[in-house]
Here is the input.
Amino acid sequence: MSDIKQKLYDELYLRLALTVEGVQYDVGVFDKLLQQDPSSRKREVCTRDKELVTKKNYNIPYQFLLPYGFLVNLVVDRKSPYKIVEEDGVFSITYFGKWITNITFPKAPLFYSKLTSDGVSMREIAQDQQGGGAKGISVAYSQECSVKDKGKTCLFCVYNGNKGLDKIEEQPAWRTPLQIAETFKEAHKEGYNRLNITGGFIPERRELEYYLDVAETVQEHLEGKDDYVLTACIGAPQEISVINKYKEVGYDNMSFNLEVWGEEYFNVYCPGKVTECAPFDQWVKTVEYAVSTFGKGKIRNNFVAGLQPKEKLFEGLEYLTELGTIPNPDPWIPAIGSTLEGHRSPTIDWHWEVQLKNTALLRKYGRTSTEAFNTGGAHSYPHVMLLIEEEALPVFHEQKEVV
Here is the structure.
């Protein structure tokens, strides 16, 4: 492995550690920074620490940059060995008080400071996702999932409540197709060319109607432009053939978040996905049909890595990558508001082994960083790790120029 590739992997390992372990900070350390760029203030809770989550002391940026450009979304934990500190305007990460590296903070995109035609802040509509020279946005269209009333919420999910935590900001309960289209149009002006649509299940499984409306409205607002990709994240439909309609209306990619591999795990962790959608084997058949419809490299499968033994997860990753999908095993964060609040995710090394295995499988079956971006976003682990393996990051070109 080349020196630069090793340094990139070392920094990506640190990024993983900062996600799994979280970071701590002193209250007020970001105040001056956020006065200069108010739009970069984090608006969603992602923490294991209730005492940190108040309107007073949750005044933090939504992400920061490591030296080689890897973006880190802040997961806060007062007990973490990692800490963000500031001295003379310079921010850095320490580990048990020992300096590790300096960090910087990207400016929020311009669309974050704009409003939709009905007066809603666009930063409340879409989440900025960029990295490795690629830019995309993701929209979670609702704040709740319809399985809540049936007591079938996925055990790891925080969609259906925050157990009395302070709301950082009031957010719209529903993102309309018009709001999404207007936001994406503004983001597109800044070079954002991917739109991911996801969310909880819609009552009475009416998501097809909603997703088709979103695609048509986006196309109307970006009339004459074809330099963007649309990804729809849905549950397994009762009639598999409706997958064709998503392609016909203009979606380029689809995602079916299996979360775990195997019927026994799926039934325990995702009871609502069984009752509202279909049994596990039907989800797998849906993925197989989607690959045959959209093609290889066009389907994403998110996993919550850490809920089951590695060997079982690896079984699923192997099956799906050979099939032609792009699995994305994100580290499990047992955040406040989920049924599994208070549990512990596996070790950093455990999660790192999962990422290395997934990347090796993606390369084995011919998947690319472009496909990983189109299906999973700009700073997903499949995207950035394939960029490293393809030596497609700017730092590789800089090295060659120096030589």
